[in-house]
Amino acid sequence: MTHATADTGFRYEDLGRLMALMTGDEKHGPAATSTLDVLWVLYDRVLRVGLGSADEPGRDRFLLSKGHGPMAYYAVLAAKGFFPVDWLPGFGTFDSPLGHHPDRVLVPGVEIASGSLGHGLPLAVGSALGLRAQGLDEPAVWVLIGDAELDEGSNHEAIAYAGSAGLESLHTVVVDNDSATHGWRGGIASRFEAAGWSTATVDGRDHAALHAAFTAPHPGRPHAVVARVEKKF
């Protein structure tokens, strides 16, 4: 299966305008904008999934664990043709499918309902195990988490298990805006390395560096990319 996101004519430069269409309360703007470049590079150059393949067994899976800040996610999905751009101005309203947390039943392309910290990575581990059990070796599983989610113990159980199980199809992107309460000597990547993961730490606004980190080989091991962005204020 080849890269399958649609070319709708939208470019990275258009994402700010698309995000500006979403107004109202509880936008969690910094949580959303911190993920924008990671999401764009994944959907534009890496993920093998699109509206026409969103239900195919061989598709790549992308799980947004950081679901409390979905505006960038919605903007990228709209730019890639998963749903109409004219859905965006209704963000967060009573009758809109675009809630403050994404809903997999309502939004095309969304794999999980998310936003509760610490849930996405364990779900991604389960997804990778399920694909392995079905003999589906080609699909990749990607999950985007925030650095503050690493304050949750459920993520550390998932990190430990995935490393020992050699879940090569599993890829975790940690968007690091210095929100975490706790940390590790050597940085976030050291936590994954200690559990047997392949890792890379890059500038989360540098598209070339992100793409190189996302596509780096990691035979027999899960892969974690720490994307450093500006500090949250």
UniProtKB/TrEMBL annotation:
Transmembrane segments: none annotated. InterPro entries: THDP-binding, Transketolase_N. GO terms for molecular function: magnesium ion binding. Residues 28-216 form the Transketolase N-terminal domain. It comes from the Bacteria. SUPFAM superfamilies: Thiamin diphosphate-binding fold (THDP-binding). Pfam families: Transketolase_N (PF00456). This is Transketolase. It comes from Streptomyces katrae. The lineage of its organism: Bacteria, Bacillati, Actinomycetota, Actinomycetes, Kitasatosporales.
